[in-house]
Amino acid sequence: MAAEDGRRGEKKGADAAAARKAKQQGGFRTMPFILANDFCDRLASVGFTSNLITYLTLQMHIPLVQASNIITNYNGTANLTPLVGGLIADSFAGRFWTITFGSFFYQLGMVCLTLSAALPSLHPPPCAKHAADCHRASSYQVAVLYLSLLCTSIGTGGTRPCTMAFGADQLELMNARGGGQLRGAGAARPKWSFFNLYFFAVELAKLTAVTAVVYVQENVGWGWGLGVPTIAMLAAVIAFVSGYSLYVRMPPGGSPLVRLAQVAAAAFKKRKAAVPDPSLLYQDKELDAGISTTGRLLHTDQLKFFDKAAIVTDGDMLPSGEPNPWRLSTVHRVEELKSIIRILPICAAGIILVTSSSHNHSFAIQQARTLDRDLTPRFKIPPASMLIFTNLAMLLTLAFYDRVLVRVLRRLTGRPNGITHLQRTGVGLTIAMLSNAVAAVVERRRRSVAAASGMLDSPKATLPMSVFWLVPQFAIHGVANAFMDVGRMEFLYDQAPESMRSTAAALYWLTFSIGSYLGTLLVTIVHAKTKGSGQWLPDNLNRGKLDNYYWLVVALEVANLVYFFVCVKYYTFKPVETVGGEEEVELYHGNGNGNDGGKKQGGGFKY
Description:
Layout lengths: L1 H23 L6 H19 L2 H8 L4 H15 L2 H13 L1 H24 L20 H38 L8 H35 L2 H20 L14 H14 L15 H4 L7 E2 L33 H27 L5 H7 L4 E3 L2 E2 L7 H26 L7 H32 L18 H25 L5 H29 L16 H24 L5 E6 L2 E6 L19
Antiparallel strand pairs: 1-4, 2-3, 4-5
Helix pairs in contact: 2-7, 2-8, 2-9, 3-4, 4-7, 4-17, 5-6, 5-7, 5-17, 6-7, 6-9, 7-8, 7-17, 8-9, 8-14, 8-16, 10-12, 12-16, 12-17, 12-18, 14-16, 15-16, 15-18, 16-17
Membrane topology: Multi-pass membrane protein
Protein name: Protein NRT1/ PTR FAMILY 3.1
Pfam families: PTR2 (PF00854)
């Protein structure tokens, strides 16, 4: 008896130690490590991508349209790999190790890119002052450039889908384990503040990149200009790994794609079966425990075909008594698939926005190069530094939104975060259209100044027009991003199944990938179709019709906004089962139309 009491005492002691360790992990104490990692990561990535058009055209001597397509193709690839990284994180690696290995590959790519700029053998010689033609980069030099960009693309596959979800996990899982003091509605507020804080840190990094780093590139040299981001990336890896003992690390729940495929296969096998009352569908708390630590998903009436996967029939059980996952799925797993399917149309609305803003890193910078950039007799604003106005506008809007606007909207709507994620996204999409309309008007003005000054055939001449004419289009785009980017990421994190949040974050980056590739396609088609009669996008923008391209983009955005409103009208927020006290409480998210569809029970409130 004494021995048994001793074992019980040891077990209680071990459980108490584990509970104390859990309480010491997660929370805002981990934010400096996570945000420092992402700050340095973005400083590195933006530090070379923001001015990449200049490097390709002036250092590698690549034509404008081809250079623009290289950038959009690179952005497309760099935003496609996060889908693979998200699946790896959710399946077996976990978010911490996926971020760590992704950072290593990114560091490798930055080192190669720095060597490409620093070593004379890896880039063409400078153009002679009076030479009509410059030597373009050789196949070998371009291959080294592509290899560098490929390594950084692989790296982003590990960092982008996981960093934000990993940071939000530190707050949500801490509260789920009882390590925090916030409950119910109070628990939602820090999590949404984290998303604003995260994007604020990202924009601060971008601001540093498009000022300090771009200045070094333009005035010191590309070796140091790319070396500084490379050093910053090394600091990012060190900062992140040093916080290892403080992190809450959610164990991977197995391949989410396999689970989704199992639900689809089971539903197809029982396609002729009649769906019974939802209360008769298969449930198994123990089976779902590892993928529903903050609550199981509850049954919804949409996409009822997949409910057939949860109908129990003969032959569904294995000899061990466990269900055959390819024949029988729980309601929670069925709802995981439904949630992902419902999310996809909303995600697709972000594609055109990325396409419409892709020219900010190419054509808009080339416009700035033709304008008067003198601040003082000895200092010119680097063209790529015009992106500073996008970053500043987003920083100011995020601060104003989080500290002022949310408080006002909260009084009107009763929501902790002011408005729904979808309403915030819709506001951003609307403002983005104004940015491109302004860009079209300014470009027409710029071209008329070139004509009046007799400089239509002098693409390298400085026009008598201030570069600050471009500020509104960059600034409005930053305001739009503050609403749309944060709203989309909040929506994905909130509406994705708990075990698929890295994969859901990858969907955010997938829209950037598809949007970038679509931007390449749009530029290629426009360039090809307008060659014969008044080319829109020539190397000499003074002879082009870039304003027509901007108006075309505005038309696409109008159609996209209508599509988004239709998707929102028919969207249903996921219902979640959580635990309040000793009893289970069913809590619902508000609906996509902005009306509060929640049910308050047991002292808790889920948003």
